[in-house]
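Exercise 7.
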Amino acid sequence: MDLEPPVVKRRKIDTDHCIICFKPLNPKKQEVVKNPTFNGLSAIFKASQIRKDDVYESIWPLQQDILSLDLKVSFHKSCRAKYTSKSNISTSNPSESDQQPCTSAATEHTRISRNETAGFDIRTNCFICGKSNTSRNKLTPVSTGTGQSTREKVLAAADKRQDNKIHMRMLAFPDLFAYDAKYHRLCYSHYISERNITAAIRKSGEETMGTLHDEAFDELKCYLEQTVFSKTKTVTPLVHLKDEYVGYLVSLGTTNAEQYKTWKLKERLTKYYGDQIVCVTFDGHTDIICSSSVTLGDALRKATILQSMTDEPEYEDIPSDVPSAIDSEMHTLHAAAGILRKHMADIEHVGNMYASVEETDIQHCAEFVPNTLYDFIQWCTSEKSHTNVTSCSDEGVMKNNLRTIAICHNIISQSRRVYSTITLGLALQVHHELGSKHLIDMLHELGHCVSYDEVRRFLTSVAVDQTASEDIYIPKVLQNLRCIDEYPIVDAAIDNFDQNEATLDGKSTTHAMAAVLFYRGKIQHDNGEGQGIPRLPRKSLSVGERALPWSEDLQRYNKPAKRPEPPPVNDVSLIDVDKDSSELKAAESKDLAWKVYRIANDEKQAVPSWTASNAFLSERNLPVATTCYLPFIRAPPTDLSTIYTILLRLVQIAAKLGQPHILVTADCAIYSKAQQIMWNKPAALDGKLTMRLGGMHLTMSFVASIGKLYGDGGLLSMLVDSDVYAPATAKLVL
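Solution. The predicted structure, written as tokens, is:
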């Protein structure tokens, strides 16, 4: 008699049959899982290990292949929910001994062979991404002596990432150099990067948590189909459903599953089933869940039975799980957060445009913030506002607290994943003052400003927007404007700009001509406000955009053979001045009064200087000048061709703005050579430009002329002997 046990025929595993019921998959009739997750498959293996049924006999020998996703499997979602249900497992295996973990050799960690990885060739494919050689990504062979260290780094990264596929692949090839393994440099550096590993773990944790909760909810739906929505129409306490749901989460390996709140489950059930489910509330007791098809009398009768059961001593543990005051507060906060998020979602944000200068004031920043969010933050931070329940919607209450507005901008930026004027402005201010990339990224991590990449993207967008003009460069602030002043004027100032003028190797030097425009008049744009700046996706200028034709093309100045002479000075008597006018007499009286007051206050001078006094006494309100910086001309500033070029540019800009003449201020070095050019009377500049010295250089020249005339006549000795100046200072003054 043959006493050998019968040989169990292993069922075929493929993607066309369910690995639990072994029936063909039909997505039209039942919901099918084609790409199961690692956690979902692990739950099936745990359940089969406890059941020890035919499913266990079929899938357990192929555990490593299935979990490493080298062998594709599929199953019905309902089959998996029933198969891994804790209550179903306990019913089918009541014996405790049958639920002990298996210690057979099947659970040992085995190494997969190269024959089991038929779709992958380590000699022709990257052992990270599995792709072959491409024109962009060339495969790099593992060099001598680095195979072991490379393998250890990839194994460590795979363990941190919980990447079973790469982990099993490394176990299959113990010596990468011997197997002539190849990889993409970019794939390898990205895979072992600690920053990318941290991001992958965070993303995997979020996806896994969401997937596990979805799988647990699917199992809970199957439980509800057998109870609440069954033919018996069972009335079930909400706390029992929560316990069942938490049990599913624990079986799936979810951490902190016991902390799941009852009200969260209630909201999810209500959202999913809608009118199909009814929640009956009892004061001091858990809510009762029943089907909407149950009659009112049956619901009250069954609820009364459950209520009487919860009052008995053996059910004292049920009321302890009833939502407490803390749960109620959390529910209120969750609802408030939903209201605020809805209002923040309604904010109109133009992602492809940066705000103009006119839109960066506190009024526009306040308009960006919803009133509900502003009031909520104000109540949280201000005791007075919380006590008086003041709202910005009330009459007379202004939304002008900059600190509250800044907090609201930070919250909106984090919620919507957008930038605002305050978060962008703070990063630009830090970049301008300190130039620290590390500090900007640190503030970005704390949610206070945009990232350093966004700062570079903004600077690039501004540079492209400012330089996108015709041959004659006009600053954007002066384009498309309408002057509302009576006598507007545009004047300019030119000077040399030196930074690291002389270095040891002659590199990293800057010696250029700088120019600034001053628009003295009130301006208003045609559309009422400034135009925004288009936001570009790139973070740097191209090679062709870094050099502007405006600042590179020099107009050569041909110096005349004979040095030009200054034009003759007109007779002063020809100047028409009405000496008897009331305005002239009033000005002389004011000037005389200022002199008397200045002389009378010898001990403690309280009268301001002449310029300040006339500024205080003047009845004319001058507008604040608008300053516009022009691109540098990268050439020696004292060269005649450089000066001639900048003068031509300024005349062209003035003509473009409708001004036939322009006043240009310069220092002594540039002024002297500019006057030589003007004395030659070039046709492009004659009658269109006037040069003047700056205030400090004019004073220096005036004092130097006094020294030229009287320095040798004893003036130097008088200044030194009278102890007015020291000898060295007196020589420099004269």
